[in-house]
Amino acid sequence: MKTAALVLAAGKGTRMHSERPKVLQTVLGEPMVLHVMNALAPHFGENIWLVVGHGAEEVRKAVPGARFVMQDKQLGTGHALSCALPALKEAGVERVLVINGDTPLVTAEIVGQFLEQSQQADLAFASISLANPASYGRVVREEGNLVGIIEAKDYDLAKWGPCSGEVNAGVYVFSLALAEELLPRVSNSNKSGEYYITDLVGLALEQGASVKGIVCGNTPTLLGVNSPLELADAEQRMQKQVNDQLLKSGVILHARESVYVSPMAQVEPGAELCGPCTVTGKSRICTDARVFSNCVIRDSVVEAGAEIRPFSHLEEAVVHEGALVGPYARLRPGADLGKNAHVGNFVELKKTKLGEGAKANHLSYLGDSEIGAGTNIGAGTITCNYDGKNKFRTVIGEHAFIGSNTAIVAPVTVGAGSLVGAGSVITKDVPEGELAIGRGRQKNLGRRRDSKA
Ligand code: UD1
Ligand code: CA
Strands 123-129 and 95-100: what pairing? Predict the structure, then answer.
């Protein structure tokens, strides 16, 4: 039987007080919805759909590889499921796991358990118990028998009595046939004026379908995020989980309460991270690499023995073995530092490859460049790679020496072993091994009082 997953991600998230779609609010640097996708991926592979609506384009960009269905108007979670039915049917899906996109702490394990326990049911949902049921849908049971889920706003205390604390976690499995049959019967005559997915539980019970409320206890794994406070709480929980795991595996953490590592990043045993620092995306920090405080690293690789000194920022960069970066360095996408290369303070690299042992230690901008092994880039060297319209490349050979405050006007090639005088503006290629000086000659003019003109 073909089972797919459907993530509800069309809502605005009014309680976040932000225009950004709620599911794109980040936990440890990654949008909430990506965490949900990662928990689903091992079970569903390609068969994951997202219902998008508010900020649909942004959400699509943030979740590459998913399939999307559009909910033009956000008329409620039940309406979101209706919008997805035609696409699911067309794909031959017979059962669907539906999950709220604002559940970032969910794990692949809990999804697996839920799938297993829901196998025999036409409809299943997960419940958690909370001391304060807050805005969650209340699970109502009478003498142990499930009656339905009643949303917080519609909960009639006189009718149902005090909430037991068992609430709906926002994870469901539906047989598509049952959902298709019941959805037209869901009405929006309730306090929110919305079509609730949760009404399907009561409707299914009424017609004698097999419905299962799967009790997951007081696990925080299924907590939803609706407000800045809940977002901060979720982040704190995940941070602790990730850091505990890193420590257990043998990663060295200093000031661990301020070390933020995304669960998507990889930090090998023996690596060392000093807080505050942030390592996110598909980053990999290898054994014996050291990341000092106030560094922000995204989608970058730091190989063994490399050091990222304080206040350095890396994005889509690769730092090979033993290289030194910072303090105060900025490696932008496409920066690639060879073994034992050095990049020092206030040096910015973009799409630039620095060969083995090459050095750019002070105040430089190197863009669209290839710099040979052992070459020294003097303080204040700038590659002028942009003429206002196009970008051009600079190639500097091995063991060259570029004097301080040089402007290299690309496209240009500076040969291996050459020397460029300080303060030069290099606009023409420099042949291998030659000395290039491109600056005004110094004149010393006499200014003694008694000298005659
Ligand atoms: C929902 C449940 C509630 C449950 C709680 C668990 C309903 C009616 N209520 O409440 O029983 O206890 O989750 O966290 O479902 N969304 C859409 N389209 C819409 C509306 C919402 O895609 O038209 C998406 C949102 O982006 C969000 C998810 O559905 O990711 C849940 O919506 P939200 O408004 O957060 O529902 P809750 O009030 O938390
Ligand atoms: Ca929610």
Answer: unpaired
Given a cut of 60, is residue 91 above it in pLDDT?
yes
pLDDT interval class at 450 (50, 70, 90)? low
d(CA 294, CA 137): 42
Share of the chain above pLDDT 90, in %: 96
Instruction: For residue 332, give the 3-state DSSP assignment.
Output: coil
For helices 108-117 and 32-44, what crossing angle results, to 10°? 50
Report CA(137)–ligand 1 centroid distance (Å): 10
Cβ of 102 closer than 6 Å to ligand 1, yes or no, is yes
Cβ atoms of 31 and 24 within 8 Å: the answer is: yes
Ligand 1 proximity of 151 Cβ (cutoff 6 Å): yes
Ligand 1 neighbourhood includes 8 CB (under 6 angstroms): yes
| Residue 318: strand, helix, or coil | strand
CA 140, 151, 135: angle at the middle one, nearest 5? 110
pLDDT of residue 451: 56
Residue keyed to tokens 């008329």:
75
10 pLDDT exceeds 90?
yes
**Atom number of ligand 1 nearest to Cα 102:** 30
pLDDT at 387: 93
Q: Which two tokens stand for residue 75?
A: 């008329």
Distance CA 307, CA 325 (A): 6
Q: How many whole angstroms from 168 Cα to the centroid of ligand 2?
A: 10
Q: Ligand 1 atom closest to Cα of 135? A: 38
- Assess contact for 25 and 31: CB atoms under 8 A: yes
Whole-number percent of the chain with pLDDT over 70? 99
Q: In b/e form, how buried is each residue of 99-130, taking b as 16+ CB within 10 angstroms?
A: bbbbbbbbbeebbeebbebbeebbbbbbbbeb
pLDDT of 8: 98
State yes or no: is 362 an active-site residue: yes
For residue 308, the cross-strand partners are: 291, 325
Closest residue to atom 22 of ligand 1, CA basis: 10
Cis peptide before 333 (omega within 30 of 0): no
